[in-house]
Amino acid sequence: MKRIKNWKLELRNLEKEILATLKYFFFFGYPPTLEEIHTFLKKKASKRRIMSILEKMVKKSLVARIFNTQFSIFNEFSNKNALNITNFNFNINFKFQISNSDRAYRYTLGEYIKNNNQQSTINNYLKRQQISINKLSSWKFNLYVKLLSLVPPVKLVGLSGSVAMLNADEDHDIDLFIITAKNRLWTGRFIILILAQLLGLRRRREDNTGKDEHVAGGNPLTDSGVQYKNKVCLNLFFDEKNLKIPKFKQTEYVAHEVLQMKPLIQKDDIYLRFIDPNKWVFDIFPNSKIKFQSSNIESNRKRKVQINSVILILNLICNLDFVIWIFNMVESILKNLQLKLITQHQTSEIVTDFQLWFHPDDFEKKLKKSSKFL
């Protein structure tokens, strides 16, 4: 009898966690797959167990299951190398496999579907998928990523925000997370900003007002008409010397960002080196650890990498003692220059020796305050 009571209690707890996960994604107008529900569930459980509970919740109308004919669009996009990003030899392309059931269905709150046409819901999502694909297929963005891959201080360029989830609206920008080489944070940032400026992709500081950042995408809370469609938002820079996210930022919201980030460029296994000191995300989302234990990732990590000749020459030059001395001087000058400019407008931005967090509008706070989310 006690065992049955415990089983029922566990079942209710899992149902609550599944609903909480769906509510989070619902805030962004994003219907997650079974794979994503499993990854972002704050309780350890197998996918088979979650699937079984979802089926029961669907029958109770607590959860709605919607058919998605184009679920694998992001994987197809990556596999076709539309950006040709994976042609760079130093990049390891992580592909997390998904189950067949995920290819057909996504899930959302049952109460939402009751008040909205099911076909309209999936059509709106598929529209945002295509918008995101178009943003990533832009020749300017394509060229920008290729140029960044040739910059020695750039170790990782990660796609984040709504575009990473293929859930962007027309007026959303493309969020990028950057990791630079050791002691090259300010040099790397300077080059990255200059290239974005030259290509007309840079989102200016004044564009930060009136619009909120989204992780999973969805409708903005406000709309001031500011135009930064297809611009790149460079709001997070880490020096590889300190890749650990500070304690006060180790939240559910940031954990989502970490796990949803898609590496476009990475060198020297920097992606796994970033995950390693941030294993606290597995405490919040215990099922997500499975992703980083797959044989696919392990085999990629051990794979012998052939270095592009251009990159090899640049790295050899950059490692000469005299060149290092010059670069250290340049780094110091660029740091002082950029800090002077940043402090003129600094509000809630976080600036340390090894990390730069440029989020003037703290969307996490607004997410918590939102009555829709609560």
From TrEMBL:
Residues annotated as transmembrane: 143-165, 185-201, 307-327
Keywords for the protein's UniProt record, in alphabetical order: Membrane, Transmembrane, Transmembrane helix
The name this protein goes by in its record: Polymerase nucleotidyl transferase domain-containing protein
UniProt keyword Membrane, yes or no: yes
CDD domains found in the cross-reference section: NT_KNTase_like (cd05403)
Keyword Membrane: yes
UniProt source species: Candidatus Roizmanbacteria bacterium RIFCSPLOWO2_01_FULL_37_12
